[in-house]
UniProtKB/TrEMBL annotation:
One of its GO terms (cellular component) is acrosomal vesicle. SMART domains: Grip. Involved in vesicular trafficking at the Golgi apparatus level. Involved in endosome-to-Golgi trafficking. Mechanistically, captures transport vesicles arriving from endosomes via the protein TBC1D23. Recognized vesicles are then tethered to the trans-Golgi before subsequent SNARE engagement and vesicle fusion. Selectively regulates E-cadherin transport from the trans-Golgi network in tubulovesicular carriers. It comes from the Eukaryota. It is found in: Cytoplasmic vesicle, Secretory vesicle, Acrosome; Golgi apparatus membrane; Golgi apparatus, trans-Golgi network membrane. Residues 10-142 form a coiled coil. Keywords: ADP-ribosylation, Coiled coil, Cytoplasmic vesicle, Golgi apparatus, Membrane, Phosphoprotein. It comes from Timema douglasi. This is Golgin subfamily A member 1. Residues 234-283 form the GRIP domain. Signal peptide: none annotated. Its main location: cytoplasm. Interacts with RAB6A. Directly interacts with TBC1D23. Interacts with FAM91A1; this interaction may be mediated by TBC1D23. Interacts with ARL1; this interaction recruits Golgin-97/GOLGA1 onto the Golgi apparatus.
């Protein structure tokens, strides 16, 4: 019996323990649920606090904006009052300006009347000026014609002066030419006299006639004819040699412009070819000129002159 009691007691204790464990598990589950709910409530409370802070900040900003709007409104009201005052002043100034404009319009009408009067006077003055201008143009035309006539007279006087100066120069040149011709004639006479004296000293009258004939012809044929017609004892070569000697001496001792007159006689006596005579004339021209070019004398065996050593 006692064993049964103990077993029954143990069974009841075990059952009660199981009940307590079950209840404890239920309480644990409920506690966990409460903990989760508490965490959710805490999160919601935190979000509510954040939202509250944000709303407070927005409220503060709205209050600040409202204050600013109030200040702007007050400033706008002040500006409106000032604008009304300025508008009243402008209206007064406009009225004064209108009064001044009416006064100026009256003055303008008076000035227009005076302007019309002055315009009529100006038209009269312009007519007089036009008549004066036409008279001035006519006078200027007359003065131009007179100036042209005077200029023509001056030009004619200048041309006459130049012609007179040219005439004087030509007369002077002509007198110089006459003097030069007389000098040449005198030299030719001296040459004739010299040749005559030498011919007279060396032979008879036939030599004299031959010498006179030598000075006048342009070729050696005349000399030969005169010599044959004289029937003298002097040979043709002797007469030609004497004439050649005098011509060469005169050619070598004369100036270039004087030697030019003897080139024909030298070419005839020495029997120059036309090219050699031309070369002699060009050489004399080159010696007389300042800027002329020297004639080409050739080179080597075909040279017309012996080069200096």
């Amino acid at each position: 019996m006692p064993c049964l009691c103990r077993q029954a007691a143990r069974a009841s204790v075990t059952q009660e323990r199981n009940q307590y464990n079950t209840r404890l598990e239920e309480l644990d589950v409920e506690c966990a649920q409460i903990t989760v709910a508490l965490e959710a409530e805490r999160s919601a409370c935190t979000s509510f606090r954040s939202e509250n802070s944000r709303l407070e900040r927005e409220l503060e900003s709205e209050r600040t904006r409202a204050n600013n709007l109030v200040q702007d409104l007050e400033r706008e009201c002040g500006e409106k009052d000032a604008t009304l005052v300025r508008n009243a002043q402008v209206n007064q100034q406009v009225e004064l300006a209108r009064q001044e404009l009416r006064a100026q319009q009256g003055e303008v009408s008076d000035l227009n009347q005076r302007l019309h009067a002055l315009q009529s006077q100006l038209d009269e003055r312009q007519d007089e000026l036009e008549r004066t201008r036409k008279e001035r143009e006519e006078l200027a035309t007359r003065v131009g014609v007179l100036q042209v006539i005077e200029h023509d007279k001056e030009a004619a006087s200048a041309v006459e002066g130049r012609l007179r100066a040219s005439l004087v120069d030509m007369e002077e040149q002509l007198s110089e030419k006459h003097k030069h011709i007389r000098v040449l004639q005198q030299r030719l006479g001296d040459m004739k006299k010299t040749l005559q004296r030498e011919l007279r000293a060396g032979g008879d009258s036939g030599d004299y006639e031959a010498g006179v004939a030598i000075l006048t012809p342009s070729s050696s044929k005349t000399i030969t004819n005169n010599h044959n017609s004289g029937n003298t004892g002097i040979s043709e070569d002797d007469v030609n040699f004497k004439y050649l000697k005098h011509v060469l001496i005169k050619f070598l001792t004369s100036r270039e412009y004087e030697a030019q007159h003897l080139t024909r006689a030298v070419a005839t006596l020495l029997r120059f070819s036309p090219e050699e005579e031309r070369l002699l004339r060009e050489t004399l021209d080159w010696k007389m000129s300042w800027f002329g070019s020297r004639p080409r004398l050739g080179a080597g065996q075909t040279a017309k002159a012996i080069p200096p050593s």
